[in-house]
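Entry:
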Amino acid sequence: MAQRKNGAKNKKLIVSILTVIVVLVLSLFSEQLKPLFEPLEVSNAKIDSEFSVHFINVGQGDCTLIKTPDGNMLIDAGENGYETTVLDYLEAQGVDSLKYLVATHPHSDHIGGVAEVLDAVPTENIIMPRLSKTNTPTTVTYEKMLTAIKNSGAKVISAKPGNEYSCGGAEFTVLAPFEQDENLNNMSVVLKLTYKGYSFIFSGDAEKDVENRILKEGYDISADVYKGAHHGSSTSNSKKFVRAINPTYAVLSYEEGNSYGHPHKETVYLFNEEGITYYSTADYGTIVFTVDNSILDILTVKNDTAEVIK
């Protein structure tokens, strides 16, 4: 009898030990399987406004939502790993369809979440740069985006300078890219968008050569709000270009402590020198410009609340 009891105790001990081992192994695997980027906290504070431009906080990446009275537009979709951040924000803002999705250029910090957005949100049109065979990336992110575009059934529009479009009362014009450039930053789709007298410039990662070409072409690039190019890099945001825009406000999208040193001190100095009030997603989180009854307001969306900062 004593032997049976001892045998039963031994079996229970063995089972307990095996259980502990299994739990430890699973915890180790779960740590390894965690995404490279943890999704950022997304506020559920819905912005009810006539017109709004949302510079969504996606860390060291770009993503901008434009809501109009009759149609929504998304410019870029952040880095790989932030898909949930973008989709949760779109859902919180009641965005169930897109009239336009603009993939400015094929770097992962701009198109990382495009495939997931297309899979989840019905999209009518996609504006993107036409790339030459030698310029076309072979990255997994870019290939995944192309597959999602094909499956979405959306109309693909090659970005051409001078082309004009409308989205629910907002008008926007393509300012770049121009000829093929091995530097894919310079293939960025650059846009000027206007709604009821308020204008916005979105530059992707376009660098100074493209800025100079836009100036040479003679486009009217004056605007109230400037989305600082390339996360505030000094390779973009030339003094001539910024002065031609002459914005009251600028927005910089970057992650605090990023390895690129964004925003570069030259850009910050220039904004200060020109008297431009600038906001960063690193400091303020998601930044929203609204227009109601021809009045422009600026809000920060954080911790489930929307707070007016101007």
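DSSP finds nine helices and 16 strands in the chain.
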